[in-house]
């Protein structure tokens, strides 16, 4: 409780010191009211939900319907950290649209803010100001327990460290991804054996993590992320612990499977080597977007020299 009060006091001070941000935050509830008004006027009549359900979800469950084809939308997003009386802005008013069912690369050096951005758009962290709309849910309104439910239902993660359970076989490690996700009555349509065959590790399914190479372990973590059938997959430096050959293979698998299963893939990396393989690239520097790149015809990782 004491920590929550301190955090609230820090936010209030930050907003008072930045009146243009405070003005945006003060209008947050009005934006929600305007959205509800749009739903009532049938602007979103083609939604997968009927009007009454949509109104209830928007009013009570942070649902934020949109007519645009984006997986993630950010508007004036700030993330800062306070220590010893000093405030450091890690994200400084980010506005960004990330396309649906495409491969997006968030690129930047260490300390540029790219991992903080990933944490916020995936629901691992919350912004201090601004709107973060991921898969039509406004994460900016959510408390921690709401974010936990959101992550379980909508997103998966792949990290540089494989995070496999050493006492479980490959098959059981992948199965865990399904069991800890979605609602209790949800059944993923993705078959584990078929997925392991696509990843070329089906023959390893009875082995344990200590019996696998680094590349094989990362393929297992990819399978675990995909088998849950998420809407969005976040990969944070997924090839950082691999040699050049293994990194190419893993990157190729990631891109290929995201297209096969029609998933939005967001890759965070400091390495620009595969920049031409992504549909959309966001270059970060010092908490700001340096530039964005749209590759109309992205190449295969196997074509990168």
Structure keywords:
305 residues; alpha/beta; 6-stranded mixed β-sheet; 4-stranded antiparallel β-sheet; 10 helices; globular
Written description of the protein model:
The chain has 305 residues and is an alpha/beta fold. It has helices spanning 2-17, 19-26, 28-40, 51-60, 114-121, 144-154, 170-179, 192-198, 214-227, 244-260, and strands at 70-83, 86-99, 103-107, 129-134, 137-138, 155-159, 232-236, 264-269, 280-285, 288-294. The strands form two sheets. Strands 6-7-8-3-9-10 form a six-stranded mixed beta sheet, with helices on both faces. The radius of gyration is 20 Å and the shape is globular. The N and C termini lie far apart (54 Å). The model has no long low-confidence stretch (mean pLDDT 86).
Order of helices and strands: HHHHEEEHEEHEHHHEHEEE
The radius of gyration computed from the alpha-carbon positions, rounded to a whole number of angstroms, is 20 Å
**Which strand order spans the largest sheet, edge to edge or round the barrel?**
6-7-8-3-9-10
- End-to-end distance, in Å? 54 Å
How would you sum up the global shape? globular
Largest sheet: 6 strands, mixed
Query: How would you state the average pLDDT, rounded?
Result: 86
- Please report the number of helical segments: 10
Tell me the quaternary state. Answer: single chain
Proportion in β-strands: 15-25%
Low-confidence stretches: none
The proportion of residues forming helix, as a percent range, comes to 25-40%
Structural class: alpha/beta
Number of distinct beta strands: 10
């Amino acid at each position: 409780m004491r920590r929550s009060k301190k955090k609230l006091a820090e936010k209030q001070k930050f907003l008072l010191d930045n009146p243009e941000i405070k003005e945006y935050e003060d209008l947050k509830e009005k934006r929600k009211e305007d959205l509800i008004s749009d739903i009532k006027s049938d602007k979103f009549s083609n939604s997968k939900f009927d009007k009454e359900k949509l109104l209830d979800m928007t009013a009570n469950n942070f649902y934020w319907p949109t007519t645009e084809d984006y997986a993630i939308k950010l508007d004036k997003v700030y993330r800062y950290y306070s220590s010893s009386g000093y405030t450091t802005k890690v994200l400084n008013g980010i506005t960004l649209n990330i396309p649906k069912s495409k491969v997006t690369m968030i690129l930047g050096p260490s300390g540029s803010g790219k991992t903080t951005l990933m944490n916020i758009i995936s629901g691992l962290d919350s912004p201090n100001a601004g709107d973060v709309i991921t898969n039509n849910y406004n994460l900016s309104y959510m408390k921690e327990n709401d974010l936990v439910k959101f992550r379980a239902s909508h997103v998966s993660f792949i990290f540089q460290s494989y995070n496999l359970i050493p006492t479980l076989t490959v098959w059981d490690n992948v199965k865990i991804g399904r069991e800890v996700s979605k609602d209790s009555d949800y059944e993923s349509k993705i078959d584990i054996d078929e997925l392991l065959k696509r990843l070329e590790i089906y023959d390893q399914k009875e082995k344990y993590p200590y019996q696998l190479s680094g590349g094989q372990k990362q393929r297992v973590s990819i399978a675990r992320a995909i088998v849950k059938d998420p809407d969005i997959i976040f990969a944070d430096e997924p090839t950082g612990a691999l040699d050049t050959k293994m990194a190419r293979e893993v990157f190729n698998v990631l891109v290929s499977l995201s297209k096969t299963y029609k998933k939005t893939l967001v890759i965070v990396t400091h390495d620009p080597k595969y920049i031409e393989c992504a549909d959309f690239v966001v270059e970060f520097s010092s908490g700001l977007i340096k530039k964005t790149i749209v590759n109309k015809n992205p190449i295969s990782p196997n074509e990168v020299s």
